[in-house]
Design a protein that fits this description.
A: 328 residues; mainly alpha; ABC transporter involved in vitamin B12 uptake, BtuC; two-stranded antiparallel sheet; 11 helices; 4 strands; 67% helix; disordered N terminus; B: 307 residues; globular
Chain lengths: 328, 307
């Protein structure tokens, strides 16, 4: 190791390290982006934060695991169960996300619509959505226990576990899962961008987000589009959960809580309710975390919140958000 | 009685403690500020008490002061919380509504990660073996009880004071309050500091009560629990947070026979309570009373208190 510490190779190592950090950051940042978009879509329409989003993230990861691996551990109601029929990873990922979308619809029906129809204080939705999250997470714990689950290395079929290439005599490693995460996230972003900007549904969604009362007067069924939004939000959350789960393993039913909070940092960073903002915010926070030096890695979880705090103080509307107009 | 206290003394003291934490969220809310920072100050106060009670360099203080070290811990926790709240509050309170809530969540999380990694806070293990003030857990009612009584008295007086009216004016309409000559920022920071000081003192009292102190004491989950106490009890009355805390904090205990399913039921009850009691329990009781009164008057048969 001492030989590598010499001056000429040191600068090369730094460049390689830079490249490696960049790749790691973009990969995790793209998942943060699609996860945070789930918050953003709901916020842009209802103006409230769905605290059940972290639980849907967890649910998605467990659903994908059940369908593609389906081997349960030693605690919980399903202890020792092996689900006999398994789907391929890609199909499980898709089905997991769709089912998470359905869970998102359920969250809307249980925690948001009853409050909306009663014209209740929007703050109450924070508590009711957290109640739904509590139920979801504990039902998962009841069924499969609180142990860690990880996807086996061969879950992606014949793909190698990592790609390596040489760069100035040093190795840069890209895990296959990072490539999958990045490409799936980008695909989802492209589809979502198309849906929002170029379809009739997207136009209606934007109209509802701009002003629900006017949209309703123009003949748009607002309640139906709110349901669509929650479906999309749940789909994105479940997809992000599955991708993170396959990369780092599922660390028990509470593993979504930390990501749920980080997602809040991402949306504030980019500007609450801004779709491009969520993407930029996700990438910025992913990269910032990747560049935390190894000596300080214990502080990595605070990075997103330090950013959140700083952005709120300097530019409360976020990087790409619109400034709030103070109404009298 | 002896046996009852043996079994339920801990729970009773916990209920009083949770009521106090709910009140620490209630005070900023009276000025219209949704602050979720209480667990951060609670954690800070607890660490101050735990460090003063166990660290070697405070040993001479402990020997010199005897039991009087405990009130000193509370005082220092209160001062430290006030200073930190002041520093965090001035920039953060320019924010409104959900932005402020998010900023305070960030504050709690940053503090938690720091406590998890610093040497002085004992890292991930935390600080344990904190000396006790009383022989039994039940004894702590003599610190938490008077604090609750004093806080309620303070809240009652505050509500009827110039400051309390300024808080209410800001809650109803900040711009209008400003136009009336109320310095909104000053009163918002004050409301935030009051909540923080209360949470800090409760933390300092809780460290010996719980015997150990670690970073899990100040988490986002706790923030939302306190918010649930206030909203389900009723955020427009001083009694709401207390009632909400007593009911919700005893719920896990009441549901204990359900074992693993109890947190599921807890969540279900949370959703039902928010949907059906949007004004909180105190608000619902108040409305029931009004309905009863108007019916009584309409029927002219009763004294207005008939159901």
């Amino acid at each position: 190791m001492t030989g590598e510490r010499e001056f000429p190779s040191r600068t090369i190592m730094d460049a390689v390290q830079l490249l490696q950090n960049l790749l790691n950051g973009i990969s995790i940042g793209s998942v943060y982006a699609i996860f945070a978009l789930g918050y953003t879509l709901v916020f842009s329409i209802l103006g409230i934060i769905n605290f059940a989003h972290g639980a849907v993230f967890t649910l998605g990861a467990y659903l994908t695991y059940s369908m593609s691996v389906g081997q349960f551990g030693i605690s919980g109601l399903l202890a020792g169960l092996q689900i006999p029929y398994q789907f391929s990873f890609s199909l499980s990922l898709l089905l997991g996300a769709v089912l998470s979308g359905a869970a998102g619809v359920l969250v809307e029906r249980l925690a948001f619509r009853p409050l909306r129809s009663r014209g209740a204080d929007p703050l109450l939705a924070l508590v009711s959505s957290l109640g739904v999250a509590l139920v979801t997470v504990n039902v998962i714990q009841y069924l499969v226990g609180s142990e860690n689950y990880s996807f086996p290395a061969d879950v992606y079929g014949d793909l190698p576990p990592a790609f390596m290439f040489h760069f100035g005599g040093k190795m840069v490693v890209i895990r296959t899962v990072q490539v999958i995460i990045f490409s799936v996230s980008m695909l989802i972003l492209a589809l979502l961008g198309y849906l929002i900007n170029f379809t009739r549904t997207g136009k209606a969604l934007r109209a509802v987000a701009e002003n629900a009362a006017t949209a309703s007067l123009l003949g748009i069924n607002v309640d139906r589009f709110i349901l669509y939004t929650f479906f999309l939000s749940g789909f994105l959350g479940g997809m992000a959960g599955s991708l993170v789960g396959t990369s780092f393993g599922i660390a028990g039913p509470y593993f979504g809580v930390a990501y749920g909070l980080k997602g809040l940092a991402v949306i504030v960073m980019g500007g609450l309710g801004s779709v491009p903002g969520a993407v930029v915010g996700g990438l910025v926070i992913g990269l910032a975390e990747a560049f935390v030096p190894a000596d300080y890695s214990a502080y990595k979880d605070a990075v997103a919140f330090a950013f959140l705090f700083a952005v709120l103080l300097v530019r409360p509307q976020g990087l790409l958000g619109r400034a709030q107009i103070q109404k009298v | 009685m002896e046996e009852f206290l043996q079994n339920y003394g801990f729970l009773l003291v916990t209920l009083v403690q949770q009521s106090l934490l709910a009140l620490s969220l209630y005070f900023p809310l009276t000025a219209g500020q949704l602050s979720l920072a209480a667990p951060g100050f609670y954690s800070l106060g607890g660490y101050i008490a735990a460090i003063m009670a166990t660290a070697d360099y405070f040993a001479p203080w402990r020997d010199a002061l005897g039991w009087a070290i405990f009130p000193l811990e509370w005082l220092i926790a209160a001062i430290a919380s006030a200073l930190l709240a002041f520093l965090v509050g001035i920039p953060a309170l320019r924010l409104r509504g959900i932005y402020l809530a998010l900023a305070t969540i960030a504050f709690v999380e940053i503090l938690r990660v720091l406590c998890l990694n610093l040497d002085i806070t004992g890292g991930a293990v935390g600080i344990f073996g904190i000396p006790q003030l009383f022989e039994s857990r039940w004894g702590y009612i003599w610190t938490f009880g008077p604090l609750l009584a004093a806080t309620l008295f303070f809240g009652y007086r505050l509500d009827r004071s110039r400051v309390g009216r300024a808080f209410k004016a800001i809650r109803e309409d900040e711009l209008a309050a400003g136009a009336m000559g109320i310095d909104a920022t000053r009163y918002k920071v004050l409301a935030f500091v009051i909540g923080a000081v209360l949470a800090g003192i409760v933390g300092a009292m809780s460290a010996p009560f719980l015997n150990t102190w670690n970073a899990r004491q100040g988490t986002f989950d706790a923030s939302i629990s306190y918010l649930a106490y206030v909203l389900i009890g009723g955020g427009r009355s001083l009694w709401g947070p207390v009632l909400g805390a007593v009911l919700l904090a005893s719920l896990p205990e009441l549901l204990r026979p359900l074992k693993d399913a109890r947190l599921i039921i807890n969540g279900v009850l949370l959703v039902i309570a928010t949907v059906y009691l949007p004004q909180g329990i105190v608000g619902a009781l108040h409305r029931l009373k009004q309905i009863a009164l108007s019916r009584g008057a309409a029927a002219r048969g009763g004294d207005g208190r008939h159901p």
